[in-house]
Write a structure and sequence with these properties.
One of its GO terms (cellular component) is membrane. Pfam families: IIGP (PF05049). One of its GO terms (molecular function) is GTP binding. The protein is α/β, with parallel strands linked by helices. It has 13 helices and 8 strands. The chain has 2 domains: 169 residues, Rossmann fold (3-Layer(aba) Sandwich), CATH 3.40.50; 149 residues. The strands form 2 sheets. A 6-stranded mixed sheet has the order 2-3-1-4-5-6, with helices on both faces. Helix 4 links the parallel strand 4 and strand 5. The protein is elongated, with a radius of gyration of 24 Å. It starts with a helix and ends with a helix. It binds guanosine-5'-diphosphate and magnesium ion. Magnesium ion binds next to helix 2.
């Protein structure tokens, strides 16, 4: 396979992956906190909360990075589950289900869970609004145990219950880790890239996953002479790099909105924020490429590699692009780490 064919294959692979997201469905009584949990998992206010979707009968759908989260509508109403519910939502196409409850466990939840179970689906139980669990003269451990026992009795199955609070963020990190554990190997990278990091370990996993993407995209971008960079003797498909940098930024949740708010709360982050914004543009990418090209060309000359022939030029191009991509990834990672540090101490 020529380097051009290889680049084309890589480009198609990237497109396919982005089109085929990890799909998670949340079901449970209206008001139990499905929309709020979705927002916590993606790390920004993607869906409106406090509105019962059963009125509109339209699913709240969040498409974020390589993730599709659905707040199933009409749940717990007389119309639910209607006969063609499973077909309408292509129930088989979801990778994971979360049953979210906050008050008493509901018969409708049990029915839906059984249906899922008989279809061989994996479902996690999430008891949200942990901050509201309280009873006079009863320890929280005991109350949690009662909820767990009640869930197992209703579902007639030995289940684990994840306790969360969207108010205090209790259990959100653990829920995110549980989602990771309960999806296929092929889907894990999608979760790691897309979900908000609540720990430094998760952030580190995000970096590993993004790094793979840098390598693949660098190969796809190193296709000679599509956009010759002035002063650099290599050709680069800049559009691939613009896409790559935008994805890295988004994977780390570093949206304009987020960066603006951080600029005010942590002024020392401003130089890092400026880098993340500046280098994501075509002009910024050109600056980075030129910087790494200078180093790479010096290195290859000192190794007596003749700078001739397309294959060699393309492989040098690949090294240059990869270094530029990695440097952008480092900037995003460092910024995300500093922001997480601040979030964890507050
Ligand atoms: N106290 C408390 N309130 C919550 C929590 N999660 C969500 N809520 C509130 O419960 C209401 C319903 O939440 P929402 O996410 O819209 O529920 P949905 O109908 O299941 O999507 C909203 O007013 C939320 O602010 C929580 O963990 N603790
Ligand atoms: Mg909702």
């Amino acid at each position: 396979m020529s380097i051009y064919d290889e680049a084309r294959t890589l480009k198609e692979k990237l497109k396919r992956e982005q089109k085929d997201p990890l799909k998670i469905a949340l079901f449970g009584q209206p008001g139990s906190g499905k929309s709020s949990i979705i927002n916590k998992l993606v790390g920004y206010n993607a869906v409106e909360t406090g509105v019962t979707t059963d009125k509109t009968k339209v699913a709240g759908i969040v498409h974020w990075n390589e993730l599709l989260l659905v707040d199933l509508p009409g749940y717990g109403t007389t119309k639910f589950p209607d006969n063609n519910f499973f077909e309408k939502f292509e129930i088989d196409s979801f990778n994971l289900y979360l049953c979210v409850f906050s008050g008493k466990f509901h018969q409708a939840d049990t029915n839906f869970f059984r249906e899922l179970r008989s279809n061989g689906k994996v479902c996690l139980f999430v008891r949200n609004k942990h901050d509201e669990i309280w009873e006079d003269n009863k320890e929280i451990d005991k109350l949690e145990k009662e909820i767990l026992e009640d869930t197992c009795r209703q579902t007639q199955s030995r289940e684990k219950v994840y306790f969360t609070s969207c108010r205090t963020k209790k259990g959100i990190k653990e829920l995110s880790e549980a989602i990771y554990r309960n999806i296929d190997e092929a889907q894990k990278a999608k979760w790691v890239k897309s979900a908000k990091a609540y720990s430094f370990e998760f952030l580190e996993m995000k970096k590993q996953a993004c790094q793979k993407y840098v390598f693949v995209a660098s190969g796809a971008a190193a296709t000679n002479a599509l956009n010759p960079i002035p002063g650099v003797d290599i050709g680069i498909d800049i559009s691939v790099l613009v896409g790559l940098f935008a994805s890295i930024r988004k994977n780390y949740g570093l949206t304009d909105e987020k960066l603006k708010s951080k600029e005010y709360t942590i002024p020392t982050l401003t130089p890092l924020i400026n880098n993340v914004i500046k280098y994501a543009t075509t002009e910024g990418i050109e600056i980075l490429i030129k910087r790494f090209a200078a180093r790479e060309i010096v290195k290859s000359i000192s190794k007596y590699i003749p700078f001739v022939g397309q294959a060699i030029a393309a492989s040098i191009g690949y090294a240059i692009i990869r270094s530029a991509g990695m440097s952008y990834l480092e900037d995003c990672h460092e910024l995300a780490k500093r922001i997480l540090e601040e979030e964890l101490t507050n």
